[in-house]
Amino acid sequence: MPFKLLAPPGRSRGPVAAGDDTPIRDRAATFSHMPEEGALDFAPAVLDPAHIGDIEGSLGTISMHDHAPRGSWRKRLLTLAAIMGPGLIVMTGDNDAGGVQTYTQAGQHYGTSLLWVLVGLFVVLYVAQEMVTRLGAVTGVGHARLIKERFGRLWNLFSVGDLFLLNFLTLLTEFIGIRFALGYFGISQYYSVPAAALLLFLFAATGKFRRWERFMLLAVAASLVVAPCFFLAHPRTGPILAGLVPGVQGGVSGTAILLIVAVVGTTVAPWQLFFQQSNILDKRITPRWLNYERTETFLGAILTTLAAGAMIAFAAFALNHTKAFGPQATYADSGWFNDAIRATLGPVAGALSAIMLLVAAILGAGAVSLSTSYAFGDTFNQRHSLHRSVLSAPLFYGAYAGQIVLAAAAVLAGSSHLLGTLTQYVQVLAGILLPSAIVFLVLLCNDTEVLGPWVNTTWQNVLDYTIIAVLVVLSLILVTSTLFTSVNAVVLTEVLFGVAGAVGVLVVAPLAFRARRLASGTGADRLAEVRQLDRATWRMPPLHVLARPTMSTGRRVGLLVLRVYLVASALLVAVKVFASFVH
To answer: Which of 180, 350, 376 is nearest to 278 (CA)?
Structure first.
């Protein structure tokens, strides 16, 4: 669908030079204050014209010219139904095959005592995904493209390079999950894995976004199989409520801390940021519908948190109290877990457990692989939309098919030991990438050229930087403890959180206070001017006309912390590799 850049009479359509002092209100008028009937037609930053048009949701359609008010609850619910998709899929896909294994392992080893971790993760999960909903709807471009244009090609290559590798390793775990799940029913991996790979490609390559979304939402509905699993384990209210109070069954230990960090890593993953932002623009959601997308994301966060808690409780009530499968038993893999459930609760529970794993793996594989293809299209300026056919977007679908084929072939060709070796470092790589992804996300959400009136508020920044600090510490704990198993994880946790707290109080807080006190004149006036713009119609202008990002105190500190953190992580990996080579 072709589109063209419009401008109000008497205004230039030429590019804005870097450092242009034109008031942002005037530039916003040039690029986004269109006549009401054409406001939603205007999306000048969009790379692929297929991202402009009617919202064709699984449960309804919304015209791009729709400006009618939603005065009744019925109309609002119908609109929400049409919008539903990106938030539910990304959140439910987060409980993938690796998530099932991590949550059930936590339940088997520590009962319900780690449920409290999920309460804090709910906040982190929603805060992170809410930021990408704003970026997707307001900018009209994907996460990888924004990083490339606002931080440079080097940071972009780092971000997407790690993302591609991490996503591929994650995709391996999804196909391993499919192998174990269908293997429970006696289906050979030589049938199950290729069939799943073909199914994933066929549903994505129809050229109809709505068909793919319906397939994924059907899988979301199937993921509710966790509910009967939960009840078959005969849950009790007392232990569940007790698990919401911070503590660890048997006392805090290094193993418990690593499992807590693993739960964090499997609940908040970098691919989610790239996927949802691109999926929002692929669904053609604009700022007018952003509150509905936020609501959907919030509901998705609730659903995925409850499902994760149900998995922990399922394993806790089924296995934690038994002699054969208690805390001392070795949790080998998801196949072992399914067999243990059958031995404890019976064949029906075992079958439902295998189905739970299968659905989780399919959801995860579909979302993770699409995340890679979206980032590929953003990075190399290729058409990347599920509205397109294979012929009109060959590189997008080629990247999608290529990773699926390679992952499926690796699972079929590799031995269990080899696959275990390949996948045991997935969490380490996720731990390294996640804090950097969150840093870029927060910096983009403070970029007035990118988000205009949708930039972060002060309280959002306080919350975001607190989350970053916690994630950096947890990631360093995970990386250090995984690479150097002799390190005392309890002491390491106390030291790192102590250092982080001291740095926050003695360094970061004074700098932030000083920066706020000095923020006056042009900078403050500009921010105030930006916040007064009309949120309903403002969209980011073309990326090439945006002024260069200003190196504010927050941006400098964020990039400095990111560089120091990455250097520290790289040194830890280098020391581990060198030590392994020597011995």
So the answer is: 376
Domain residue limits at 212: 86-235+262-424
What is the H or E stretch that residue 363 is in? helix 347-379
User: What distance in Å separates the CA atoms of residue 360 and residue 324, rounded to the nearest whole number?
Assistant: 27
Q: Calculate the dihedral angle through the C-alpha atoms of 558, 562, 564, 567, rounding to the nearest 10 degrees.
A: -170
Rg (CA), the chain: 24
Q: What is the DSSP letter of 33?
A: -
Alpha carbon 286 to its chain centroid, in Å, reads 20
- One-letter amino acid for residue 510 of the chain: P
- pLDDT mean over 260-287: 88
Q: How many CA atoms lie within 13 A of 340 on its CB side?
A: 26
Please choose, from the candidates 339, 342, 335, the residue with its C-alpha nearest in 3D space to the C-alpha of residue 361: 335
Q: If you average pLDDT over every residue of the chain, what do you get?
A: 81
- Do the beta carbons of residue 241 and residue 119 sit within 8 Å? no
pLDDT bracket for residue 40 (50, 70, 90):
very low
CA distance 297 to 300: 5
CA distance 261 to 305: 16
Say whether 324 sits in a helix, a strand or coil.
coil
Q: Please indicate, yes or no, if residue 194 is contained in any of the structural domains.
A: yes
Q: 119-146 pLDDT, tens per residue? A: 988 998 999 999 999 999 999 899 999 9
Is the pLDDT reported for residue 426 higher than 80? no
Question: Running DSSP on this structure, what letter comes out for residue 381?
Answer: T
Give the Å distances, CA to CA, from 285 to 87, 509, 545. 12, 37, 23
> For 82, phi and psi rounded to 5 degrees?
-70, -35
SS3 content of the chain, % helix, strand, coil (to 5): 75, 0, 25
Domain count, the chain: 1
Does some domain include residue 507?
no
Q: Rank 99-108, 350-359, 545-554, 555-564 by mean pLDDT and report only the highest.
A: 350-359
The overall longest dimension of the chain from CA atoms, in Å, is: 80
Give the SS3 label for residue 456: coil
- Bridge partners for 55 per DSSP: 62
- CA–CA separation, 576 vs 572, rounded Å? 6
Query: How far is residue 50 from each of residues 139, 275, 304, 374, 493, measured CA to CA in Å?
Result: 15, 17, 30, 13, 48
DSSP 292-350: HHHHHHHHHHHHHHHHHHHHHHHHIIIIIT-STTSTTS----HHHHHHHHHHHH-HHHH
Q: Is residue 439 part of a domain?
A: no
- For 14, 65, 94, 201, 502, the CA distances from 91, given in Å and listed in that order, are 41, 29, 5, 21, 34
Residue 334 belongs to some domain of the structure: yes
CB under 8 Å, gap of 24 or more: what pairs does 257-260 form?
A: 257/477, 257/481, 257/489, 257/490, 257/493, 258/477, 258/478, 258/481, 258/482, 258/489, 259/102, 259/105, 259/106, 259/109, 259/110, 259/114, 260/114, 260/117
